[in-house]
Amino acid sequence: MPDTARSHSGAPEPVALSSVPLDLPARFDEVIEDLHVVRLPMVTRFRGITEREVALLSGPAGWAEFSPFVEYGTEEASRWLRASLEFSGLIPQSTTLAEAAPSTVPVRSSAPAADANGVTVAVNGTLPACPPDEVEPILSRYGRVGTVKAKVAEHGFASLDEDLARLREFRRLFPDTTLRLDANAGFTPTEAIEACEAFADFDLQYFEQPVPEVEQLADLREELARRGLPIVIAADESIRKAEDPLRVAELGAAEVIIVKVQPLGGIGAALDVISASGLPAVVSSALESSVGLAAGAELAARLPHTDRSRDILGDRVACGLGTGRLFTADIVAEGEALTPVDGAIPVTRIVPDPDRLQQLAVDPGRFEWWAGRLQNCWSALRV
Predict the structure, then answer these.
(1) Which of 129, 141, 201, 366 makes an SS bond possible with 362, Cβ 3.0 to 4.6 Å?
(2) Is 260 an active-site residue?
(3) What digits encode the pLDDT tens for the residues 309-340?
(4) Does the domain at residues 17-102+355-382 carry the CATH identifier 3.30.390.10?
(5) Matching NCBIfam families, A to Z (predicted)?
């Protein structure tokens, strides 16, 4: 993609960073000396899992996380590694449109509501698929938050009655809290229309990825407008690489894009695609430890604020970086995880606790699996 190409917003299109080779030695262990793989138990089932495996590595800038989901292939997972190498300072931040110099943030192992530099970002609570009587105890883990994202369509359209029961209980408990929904592409186009008819009663800020394909999102928006249903559509799964947001913007498939640091290849790449798309953005986590959430917080602190984003998302965008509350243990001591306090987390660096790294370490077989996976991604980045 040439540097002179133009995007939907009129800015140069971002380079497809996953295709740009890196000057790396043959093996990762020639550069990465400190690698740990841990297993984090979860409060409840989320995204079909009850525990999350993540790899942690350190570099000149501090610790970073490499945690593509286990089903992802090498090509996709290598973008996650590129992000980890960038955040740890092992490679320079890649950016063509965004301001190159990030804010300096302190390295620390604890995460109070406001760090020494005073920079925090707002976060939403996350409500997984659960029975109505679990809504209150799950959300109580987040403390006071002004925005909640509820997962729907866990079993596709078959979950609709359960979803509605859970949302009715949520609205009973939190009538004034801003609500977002996320279907993780769980509906067919026909099902999505019927679901939107039902969900419209809950006063949504936006509905995230109700259908799988970008073209389906565009068609859904047209049909919602025809029926007079005031539901804002956000794209998440449709934003996987640098070119995706441009396609979403070109087709008018969404009014908001959800961006994640690791899947897009790093903070610089994420800022580029936000700028190129011209769409309001919300930063979300990929179900990461506090180390991974720290990268998301830095990106969230650098989001552009426009009239368009304020109209949809408000003056202070609540990002999906409160997912540390979904774990029963993290890689820092209890009370020091990057979890929300009064609806915000600080922009900071996280240093894992050595005792936690040992306590949560996976067995040797799983460590070797992750080391082999990291090497495969490392080699892919060199090609």
Answers:
(1) 366
(2) yes
(3) 999 999 999 999 998 888 999 999 878 899 88
(4) yes
(5) PRK02901.1
Catalytic residue among 52, 79, 108, 151: 151
pLDDT at res. 246: 81
Closest CA to 351 of 295, 304, 290, 293: 290
Q: What average pLDDT score do residues 272-292 get?
A: 93
Specify the pLDDT at position 290.
97
Asked if the domains at 17-102+355-382 and 107-353 fall in one CATH topology, the answer is no
Cβ contacts of 110 within 8 Å, gap of 6 or more: 332, 333, 335, 336
Q: Could you tell me the two tokens for 366?
A: 């799983």
Q: Which residue has the tokens 């049909």?
A: 223
Q: CATH number of the domain at 107-353, out of 3.30.70.1060, 3.40.50.1980, 3.20.20.120, 3.90.226.10? A: 3.20.20.120
Of residues 260, 302, 356, 373, which has the active-site annotation? 260
Q: Residues annotated in the binding site for Mg(2+), as ranges?
A: 182, 208, 236
Phi and psi (nearest 5°) for 206?
Answer: -165, 165
Label the pairing between strands 233-235 and 204-208.
parallel
DSSP string, 8-60: TTSSBPPP-GGGS-----S-GGGT---EEEEEEEEEEEETTEEEEEEEEEEET
| Domain residue ranges in the chain | 17-102+355-382, 107-353
